[in-house]
Amino acid sequence: MAINDQLFGIHGASLALRSQRLAMLASNIANAATPNYKARDIDFTKALDLATAQGKGADAAARESVAYRVPLQSSLDGNTVELSTEQTEFAENAVQYRTTLSFLEGRIATVMQALRGE
Fold first, then answer.
1. Residue pair 101/112 in contact by the 8 Å Cβ criterion
2. Rounded-to-integer distance, Cα 105 and Cα 112, Å
């Protein structure tokens, strides 16, 4: 077991996966007007399970957990991006990313205090 796993548990993998998901959702938003663009998303729960329980790296877990989003209303140009859905998912994931980051910052601060003997 790596020292990072002992210190951070699943939160290190969670942060990496949330970062990759933010990038994918941003890509969906950026391609909202691109004909035939298919919106994709990472199944976070599946990816986290692959990264922790099965010991895969965050990159491999994210790649295996990507799925195309099924739109609620189809577009004439074949684009499956629904801007409101993507923006909502992006905002929600950004809050969860920040929460995980805050937890890790607290954990690091605690370790630093212990190393300084405070």
1. no
2. 10
